[in-house]
Amino acid sequence: MVESVLKKLGQTDNCVLDDVFVQAVSEVLTSLELTIRSDSRYEQFAIIERLVTPDRIIQFKVQWLDDHNNVHVNNGYRVQFNNSLGPYKGGLRFHPSVTVDVLKFLAFEQIFKNSLTGLPIGGAKGGSDFDPKGKSDFEIMKFCHAFMRELHPYIGARIDVPAGDIGVGSREIGYLFGEYKHITRNYDGVLSGKPYAFGGSLMRPQATGYGVVYFAREMLKEELQESLEEKVCTVSGAGNVAIHTIEKLQQLGAIVVTCSDSDGTIYDPKGIDLALLRHLKDEGRRLSLVEYINTHPHALYTPKTEYPDGGHTVWHIPCFAAFPCATQNELTLIDAQKLVENGCVAVVEGANMPTLPDAIELFLREGVLFSPGKASNAGGVAVSEFEMSQNASMEKWEFEKVDRKLDELMRQIYKRVSLTAKEYGVERNFVDGANIAAFKRLSEAMILEGV
Ligand code: NDP
């Protein structure tokens, strides 16, 4: 079944790494083989074919002026993948590596993640190949306004609600919202991750990272009767997800010794100085991590050019638990071998699909607890949905209330995933557990809605 669907997607080889959409579909369908055969309705309603085909892909030109009045042109996209469970929902990514293929993969993952939350949200993703690095605040604003001028006809509080992702934080969401309001005169919850001043939810910036750690805490407690206290943890990335994962790990007493950006890795055996990391990576600043060692000479900086062959320095540092929080395909088989060799007991994904398929296989074979991003990083989209609820009812929830609800929701996701894995005879295989649990909810809705 996997082969034939991949063939239809125009892909004859089983899994090609420069085609991340095929990689994501292949992983999900492999998990679902037995489930699909167990119910004839899936074939009757062509569920798989419908599930792997986006509802629509919107592509547009974004033209904007830099501070010297030079004209620039970028590609903008929105992939509305599936709205069977609720309005399309998923982030916007601004990064030069953005292509239709990357956004299709992210949107496909998003429909499963959103299904796992149990909340009424469908899946989408969007973005642009625009590079925010080195741009002035005004240039970011002008780009966001130009982007929204093209995107606004396709979104709405009950239609499609974009949020942030790589390169898009609350500053960018603020500019996007401003332009949406300017054009439509609608003051509604069309975007989530807004600044608190105009309808944003408290805790949205922290939600993904905190959720990752809540998931990890629950998984370690239930599976190994272990806690994170005084345990050495490694984290990759230095953006929103990484920073808040580090923050919550530190609050729970863990010792986080690494972080990384696109140029290199910091290893600080005394524990990452979070205040300094924030200072370096503040939205307007985005300085290189090499600056970290200026004030912390005991720490080690490894530039990307010196990473071990086919691997990443972060994963070669011995740890109890590892948290990949940067980007897709950043943890290779070589890294996985090193993690296993060094006695790592759990790998909890904060980024979307950061671990390569053969690395996941190794973790599962070696009994390393492995949580896929669609389960452990679902806290971000969940709090986005809380923001939609607050906007719709004109309410404002306290930080503690959002935090409590997030913690509870991450525990429920863990339970859903682990119980499904048990029920389907693949205990502790949280990849299969997540894919099957998400698929069952989603496919039921698709069947009930008819074709
Ligand atoms: P940010 O833009 O805030 O940070 C991304 C980090 O990853 C930065 O440190 C960046 O380095 C690094 N990075 C980006 N691309 C690469 C690359 N090709 N190679 C190496 N490093 C890279 O993004 P987020 O923290 O928001 O997102 C991180 C991951 O989490 C992504 O996979 C995203 O899809 C996922 N995610 C995010 C959610 C959210 O709420 N923000 C929700 C769920 C998932 P540099 O500083 O040099 O740019």
Annotation keywords:
5-stranded mixed beta sheet, Rossmann fold, alpha/beta, 5-stranded parallel beta sheet, 451 residues, 17 helices
Write the layout of secondary structure elements.
Layout: H1 2-8, H2 20-37, H3 41-44, H4 47-51, E1 56-65, E2 71-82, E3 88-94, H5 100-116, E4 123-128, H6 137-151, E5 160-163, H7 170-184, H8 204-224, E6 232-235, H9 240-251, E7 255-256, E8 258-260, E9 264-267, H10 274-281, H11 292-295, E10 300-303, E11 321-323, H12 333-341, E12 346-348, H13 357-366, E13 369-371, H14 373-376, H15 379-393, H16 399-423, H17 430-449
Parallel strand pairs: 3-4, 3-5, 6-7, 6-11, 11-12, 12-13
Antiparallel strand pairs: 1-2, 2-4, 8-9, 9-10
Bound molecules: NADPH dihydro-nicotinamide-adenine-dinucleotide phosphate.
NADPH dihydro-nicotinamide-adenine-dinucleotide phosphate binds at residues 97, 164-167, 208, 237-242, 261-263, 286, 325-327, 350-352, 377, 380.
